[in-house]
Amino acid sequence: ESNNTYDVCLRLTRDALTIQKLDVVCTSGSESQVNHRTVVLRRQATGGLGLSIKGGAEHNVPVVISKIFKDQVGKETLSITGENGEVQVNGINVEHCTHQEVVHLLRTAGDEVTITVRYLREVPSFLKLPLGSPGLGHSRVSSPLFDSGLHLSSNGSNTTPSPPSPSAEEPKYEKRWLDAVCLPLLMARVSRYKAGTDKSRTNCFEVLALDGTDTSILQFCTSAESTDWLQAISTNINDLTQEHVKIINKFCSSDDQIVHMGWVCECPESRATGRPSALKFLALRGAYFYIFKCPPVSNIDTADWGQAETTYNLYEVLFKVHKLWMSEDCWLQARLYLGLELSPEQQDVESLCFSILVGHGQSHTFRVELASELAVWEKSFQKAVFLEVQRIRSKSYLCSSQGSVLSFTIDFTSGFSCSEGSSKSVLWRYKFSQLKGSSDDGKTRVKLLFKSAESNQIEMKELEFANLTAVLHCIHSFIAAKVASMDPLFVCSFPGNYNS
């Protein structure tokens, strides 16, 4: 995204991602001996001061002596070549001066100039890869990131002499990879997308810690290498999150357990709205589906969980994965179910999204970074809904039919029933297996088609609800939980005994 790039080394551990930068370290001698060095330069009639400078405060980089012309200066002057930043010129501090200010000061400093310099560790990369260099789309004219010659040499020589061999007393330096940034991975997040957009970066992603520390953009040579690192980092983040969930659950009742939580990106319902994508932290806990702007970091503090941006009853929410395939490309569906990754060519803005459909036709669409994350969210939602239905066992909604106020009940054991609102007497009852179809007007009315156990005929029941969507989602949740309870593998994956 910019030309200010440099090589880094990544080290991934269980708890953190460390970024290392190539730096120069003192391996022997005393660094303080040359931390500051003062040299007196005498201006030559034909060669000027015999040096060039680069940098300036306007680019937030120090002014450095970048070149020394050895045929125009004395031996002592050669010791300030290369990796030294100017501190003073004739006693005037120039550490915060612009490039042109230092150029003017040196040119008007007289025939004898006293320069004090300080060794700068991070200057080598700045000298080696100046911003705005030819080939990067910038002009070289009057750039403070290029050499300003003060030598006035007539021979045009631009060669930089090799630094003199250090004496035994002088310190020796060596390039090494040193830790620069360490990001804790607990509740961290990764993103391949440019902030606030649905545009994915090529071979790039960034990692952002909960405390706000970030890696900037990490760019890799190939998509495969980028995906490998993305998966490895995401795996560690998820493992740490699950360990944190276990700690929280130790302090919570069996009805208030966390099933899963993590970062996602909420996508606008329509690009025409102009609303940018936004990062959200989702959690499936107890009876609710939570949407946060920031994670609830406390183990047991209910105040943190009370800061949720939105909360929904789990049994009234429908989870829907966006399709990844067209017509007969069913193998893509299989890869998603297994949590396998897709190649960049198979992924688009819709490929790793899921929606949460809630009451009154409202919905939220979220995007994740990996197919494995999408599979985890789908399975976790199924588990959370199953546990919640097992907990409440039944749910009733007020409705009306032909002008009468009724109570419609969905019961995990007995199925569907409808009773009078005042007397509570049951008007009709059907098992889940007797529901053969339904239709609704998309607003308030629904027709439920049941097969009578006595006559084997289809009987239609027409009901009207204030929030039809929530009722339909609740019916779906109870039927899905009933089907899941018949699967021994599904039931055995949960703690406790949920046989019905």
UniProtKB/TrEMBL annotation:
Residues 150-172 are annotated as: Disordered. SUPFAM superfamilies: PDZ domain-like, PH domain-like. One of its GO terms (molecular function) is structural molecule activity. It is found in: Cytoplasm, Cytoskeleton. The keyword Chloroplast does not apply. It comes from the Eukaryota. One of its GO terms (cellular component) is cytoskeleton. Residues 38-121 form the PDZ domain. InterPro entries: PDZ (IPR001478), PDZ_sf (IPR036034), PH-like_dom_sf (IPR011993), Syntrophin (IPR015482), Syntrophin_4th (IPR055108). Keywords: Cytoplasm, Cytoskeleton. Belongs to the syntrophin family. This is Syntrophin, gamma 2. It comes from Nothobranchius furzeri. The gene is SNTG2.
